[in-house]
Specification:
The protein is α+β, with helices and mostly antiparallel strands. The protein is built from five helices and four strands. Helix content is 51%, strand content 14%. Keywords: Coiled coil.
Length: 145
């Protein structure tokens, strides 16, 4: 056991490891065999915060016949999250229509790139306007041919 662990106590159906205060709390789900960190739950609102391996293990448990509510209660996460993961898994396998995960990732990357290019274009336009204001035309009296 790492030195950071002070003590381990058994609570109901899981092991809860008590860490030094600056360390994250980890919870070992005895029935699922998945290690859940409070860091994952804290960052759960951010897309991609939960590792794909964790999602895959949760989906495997549900596909093996465990009720969604039981798995959600044991992992201390909303059952709706698991239902969303199940739906996305059905879309990825082609059982339901919709955007696959890879299509979503490409779409997000394209939108980010478009936003970046629009920002660069706006900066370039501002720079051109500033140069026009600061530097007068060379021979303003002559007409260009």
């Amino acid at each position: 056991m790492p030195k950071a662990i002070r003590r381990a106590r058994r609570w109901r159906a899981s092991w809860v490891l008590s860490w030094v205060p600056d360390m994250p709390r980890l919870r070992w789900g005895r029935l699922t065999g998945i290690l859940v960190s409070s860091i994952m739950r804290r960052d759960a609102g951010r897309p991609g915060a939960i590792p794909p391996e964790f999602r895959r293990k949760v989906l495997d448990l549900v596909k093996a016949g465990r009720p969604v509510r039981q798995v959600a209660a044991e992992l201390q996460m909303p059952s709706q999250t698991i239902y969303v993961w199940l739906r996305q898994d059905r879309i990825d396998t082609g059982l339901e229509p919709g955007l696959t995960s890879t299509d979503q990732a490409e779409l997000i990357a394209a939108r980010r790139r478009i936003a970046q290019l629009e920002t660069e274009l706006e900066a370039t336009r501002r720079a051109i306007d500033l140069v026009k204001q600061a530097v007068p035309p060379k021979d303003a009296s002559k007409r260009s041919r």
